[in-house]
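hey team, just a heads up i'm posting the complex here instead of the shared drive bc the drive is being weird again. everything in one block, sequence lines first with there labels, then the predicted structure for the whole assembly after. its two chains so it's a bit long, scroll down
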Amino acid sequence: MRGLLPVVEHTVKKPVWDCRMCGQCVLHSTGMTCPMTCPKTLRNGPCGGVRENGHCEVKPEMRCIWVSAEDRSRTLPLLPAAWREEFDHLRPPVNNTLKGQSSWLNLLNGSDRRTPPGWGPA
Amino acid sequence: MKALNAFESLCLSRERKIVTAEFPSFDGGTLDDIRRAAENLAPYVDAINVTDNPAAHAHASNTAMAIALTQLGYNPILQVVCRDKNRLAIQSDIVGVSMFGVQNICALTGDDVTAGDEPEARRVYDLDGPQLVKVATLMGTGMYLSGRKMTSPPHLFVGAVENPSAPPLEYRATRALKKVEAGARFLQLQIHYRPDQLEAFIAACVANGVAERAAILPTICLTKAARALSFMNEHVPGITVPQATIDRVVGSDDPLEESYHLVRELASHALSLPGVAGLHITDFRHDDSVRRLTEDLAIGPRFEEQHAHSA
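-- predicted structure starts here --
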């Protein structure tokens, strides 16, 4: 199961969200837009380099994923209000030990919410 | 109770307008060169920002420059970007400089490596800007992110940067609030050429409490000619200069003087907005414009007494 689940998860999430298998999925709080597709892998909103047309500083041809995320967190239909509200929460630094693991499993066993003791509860 | 440094004290009291300025980057030289540059700037400002490989170009390190300024008797603000170092290196930099008396930390996400002259470099971003604010604030309580305790808590005064002119415009004040809730007590804004956007951003920061909880310092950039404006417009991430602004300088008889007037107008407009605590200055003119600007606007440490009397 441990070996198979990441494969299944990636198969489902890669085509839809361009999932990078960070193992600690926050899609629900980012307007169903994967923050790991940001070239700077920012978890807390758009950097100051967003172009006037809303495109990415690093990849000028790409719309800033955080511009999309912010827009979609407000406008996406069927998104629960609690998820919309979570957009503004401070997300903790990425736990690099979870990379490649199934975030579904990490959600169930709570390891995706485990933060460094100095950070406090996620 | 620890003594507050002069910049921190002003950010908290707001008894007069605060002036900060960016220190030039160094690519070699001696401590005397640093001293000379500091002597030119220090009389007019309350704190001096040392940059961290600005625009993704390698220069003398932020930590070395901050230590040098502190030892020369000046009050630096250490800029820390997330681009070049992971959380271990960033924390060791902060605790290291704190042992030399550096107290002010300004957390930035940082321009991408592709903005610089070594675009082949690996970008890091192990932390992002708001996370770095929280980590630096935590370190001020004497603890690393891991929870491990330091020998003694460093005195740190933490701030951040926000860009009032980058999309999504309506969201920027909320992002500023996120940084304030993470611990930022001052916000130095990205260089702006759009007074209307600054005005909207500041109004939103007044409405959501950011302006009260953090000293907001809009940034103006002293330039010599239209070429610098066009360059920023085309090459600096997050800065847009309206064509009309560029044309105004191009079309004038004295572009050097017109560039100054343009900046003075932007600065005096920014200072007129309720919720603005002062000004941050980036100087690419390298003449006596910092002195002239602070005199024209009557702001900074040299105008302490006049303001105290008029208050």
